Amino acid sequence: MNCSIGKKMHQEIKAISLLLPFRLGRVNCYLVKNDTGYVLIDTGSPNRRSYLENVLQTSGCKPGHLTLIILTHGDFDHTGNAAYLRKKYSTKIAMHQDDLGMVEDGNMFWNREKSNMLFKILAPTVSGFGKSERFTPDVYVNDGDDLSKYGFDATVLHIPGHSKGSIGVLTAAGDLFCGDLLENVRKPSLNSIMDALKTANASLEKLNSLSISTVYPGHGGPFQMEVLTRNRL
Prior knowledge:
single chain, 7 helices, 5-stranded mixed β-sheet, 23% strand, Metallo-beta-lactamase, Chain A, 233 residues
């Protein structure tokens, strides 16, 4: 899938791994450098904000250089620094509207089919996603949207399953940022936490029909798409 016409845009991907609160694992953000600036895919949770800022700074991404923040879905560990970074970097936040209530109200169970009551009680304490972290996105993206106007040679894919508003970002080079649809904690697979498994499998079938080389998941290291396909077979 190629989402631009004409000259190919130069892109460099930097993975940023952030520790989750209470050492509950790690989450990935991805800083993409292009010809006109930077795009940040996901933002981590607030507990590692200083570390994230330092990585952005040392990578050359300064206020005024961050063209767009893209959120793959509304969970706190992916959106927790978005409001802060939008203000500091004078940028815009883009996400799918089906996860809107998660970031506007701080309710991680908004528009989801399943709800673990114990986690629902503990979530506000664990996440650190308070009122100052809540926000309304500037841009709503949907399936097939072209991101080249932000200097990013990539297309948005709507891939629900983990949440209704989950999206992926597929570059013209075949790199896929998949959020939490897929993970590589132990091996490449569907994420272990799914809101709608049937929907997730349909999203995976959609990905299998596309030309994807490297997958950059929300949790775990990058992997080749063919490895996931081979494992599932």
